Amino acid sequence: MAVSVPRSGYPRWLGQMADGLSSLFFSNRSARRLLSLVLFFGIWQILCEISFDFFINFQFVPSPVEVLKATLTFFTEDPWVHFRSSINRVLWGYAVASGIGVLLGVVIGWFAVAEDLLLPPLELLRPIPAVAWIPLAILMFPNAESGMIYITFVGAFFPVLISTINGVESTLSDTVLIRVGQCLGAKPWHIFKDIVVPGSLPSIANGLVIGMGNAWFCLVTAEILAGRYGVGYITWESYVTSNYPPIVMGMLMIGLMGAFSSWVVSRAMELLMPWRVIKKQGTA
Amino acid sequence: MMTQLEERQTIKGAVQVEGLSVTFRNRSHETHVLDSIQLGVNPGEFVCLLGPSGCGKSTLLNVVAGFIKPTAGYVMVDQSPITRPGADRGFVFQQYSLLPWKTAFQNIELGLKIRGMPRAERTELVNDYLNRVGLYKYRNRYPHQLSGGMQQRASIVRALVNSPSVLLMDEPFAALDAQTRHLMQELLLDIWEDLKTTVIFVTHDIEEAIFLGDRICIMGVQPGHIKAELPIDLRRPRHFDDTLSTEFVTLHRQVFECIREETMKSMELSF
């Protein structure tokens, strides 16, 4: 039997409000996510206000409020040309990277000859960070724009390639699935099309999501080459001119666009894989 | 009067295993898994391979399927030697083996699609089979939305829809609960009475082997060999009540004693 008794010392409405708030934040997943962001910016603001300085120094770190002011200023001047330039570079680099990455990954995963002939130089190039490519990007490409696209390509390409190879190889290593195909009379082409490709899709999707994030990750590096426009360019330019709030603004915008586009890719991939169910601990 | 050979040629599903040995080699040592297996299965016969774990019964089935190459000897199905897997030998795996990215219908349809059967024809055939095993309602579900018993029914139908000469079953009901297992056994017999496909059924469950088989081949260990063959003359169609009959219990005891010795041998291996 449920009897509601006011808790001693507290008015009843306060207890109810606390219950309401806690059930809102702990049962609703969107609310929990919002809470996490509020806490993140709140703690950041507090650290700036108190000029926190213990090993990590927040005295010169722009606070969220300063960053917000810089953002408002940025939006009053023509911001779209910067967004357009950056989005263009990232999407082109990403499109080329995912196309070539998935294609090469599937070929390398499926054919031993392709693995032997193609993988060694790719493995050699893989650990090279995007920033190290800047001089060559300047030398190799006809203009800065294609050089920048190349740098975002480098960021996106390798996660897509490696995840695709792994996906194909792990599906091929699943003896039962391959045998299922064989005893239905499947030729290699059918095994490829009906078993290997769908079987490696989760891993390919993973590579595509990471690749999307990495393309944005390389944007500041790429736009070191830029003359005038781009969110990464503003970030880098503000550092050169010691104007700190726009740096953080640029960082957050890249973070935001990166997170959003990764989310779009991962949603799109989920739609391609209706057979998958993901059940986490703590979901109804 | 036809000779035995001529008769085999005219009817589908004769399996002949001749002097079959399988040895697995790795760097450090060799494991002799099967030793000169001799086995003939008649068209339409239901044969159970029964034995303790480690007797090589699954290996034998895998050789017939063409998944494993024998070290010596050969397997013939309807007079042609087996070199690789093919749709003429349907296989039902112990694990749930439906392709997770295809619905029940698409899984069952796959073999026919590979063979190039026109869509309308294969849809009708697949639907017939789905109805037969009570899965028509669930045809658009993905495997993870089906129970274990439903998944195995779909796996059996996936093999049968290609009208194989032989149906190879590797402990297909081992992962199911006891109630479902009994129902699945009855369902399998029911379908088999209609189709009369040759079945080679691997199991370690004595009751299952007696209930299903026309004949039981009891396998021994170290290395795997066929220790004894026992015809099961229980009347068909069989029902679950039959497992309580005196005849059944007598057979059970007989097989149990024969297999017990081998189980003890195989257990010593792991101590």
Molecular structure report:
The complex is a heterodimer of chains A (284) and B (271). Chain A is mainly alpha-helical and 284 residues long. Helix content of chain A is 75%, strand content 1%. Chain A is built from 12 helices and 2 strands, in the order H-H-E-E-H-H-H-H-H-H-H-H-H-H. Chain A has helices at 12-27, 29-49, 64-76, 80-110, 112-125, 134-140, 144-172, 175-182, 188-217, 219-222, 231-240, 244-272, and strands at residues 53-54, 56-57. In chain A, helix 1 packs across helix 2 (29-49), helix 4 packs parallel to helix 7 (144-172) and helix 8 (175-182) packs antiparallel against helix 9 (188-217). The radius of gyration of chain A is 25 Å and the shape is flat. Chain A starts with 11 loop residues before the first helix and ends in a 12-residue tail after the last helix. In chain A, 32% of the residues are buried. The mean pLDDT of chain A is 88. Chain B is an alpha/beta fold. Helices cover 39% and strands 24% of the residues of chain B. Chain B has helices spanning 4-10, 57-65, 104-115, 119-132, 148-160, 178-195, 206-212, 246-270; strands at residues 15-25, 30-41, 46-50, 72-77, 80-81, 89-92, 166-170, 198-203, 215-220, 225-231. In chain B, the strands form 2 sheets. Chain B has a 6-stranded mixed β-sheet with strand order 6-7-8-3-9-10, sandwiched between helices. A 4-stranded antiparallel β-sheet of chain B has the order 2-1-4-5, with helices on one face. In chain B, a hairpin with a 4-residue loop joins strand 9 (215-220) and strand 10. The longest helix of chain B has 25 residues, at 246-270. Chain B is globular and about 50 Å long. The termini of chain B are far apart. The chains are: A mainly alpha (284), B alpha/beta (271).
Summarize the structure.
Chain A has 284 residues and is mostly helical.
Uncertain regions spanning at least 5 consecutive residues of chain B: 1-10
Overall average residue pLDDT of chain B? 86
Global Rg of chain B: 19 Å
Number of helices of chain B: 8
As a percent range, the share of strand residues of chain B is 15-25%
Terminal residue distance of chain A:
26 Å
- Helix-strand sequence of chain A: HHEEHHHHHHHHHH
Share of helix of chain B, binned: 25-40%
Percent helix of chain A: over 70%
Structural class of chain A: mainly alpha
Using only CA atoms, what is the Rg of chain A?
A: 25 Å
Biggest interchain interface, per-side counts: A-B, 21 and 27 residues
Spatial order of the strands forming the largest sheet of chain A: 1-2
Sheet bearing the most strands of chain B, described? 6 strands, mixed
* Strand residue percentage of chain A: under 5%
- State the low-pLDDT regions of chain A, or none: none
Note the run of SSEs of chain B as H and E. HEEEHEEEHHHEHEHEEH
Query: How far from one another are the termini of chain B?
Result: 56 Å
Residue-averaged pLDDT of chain A: 88
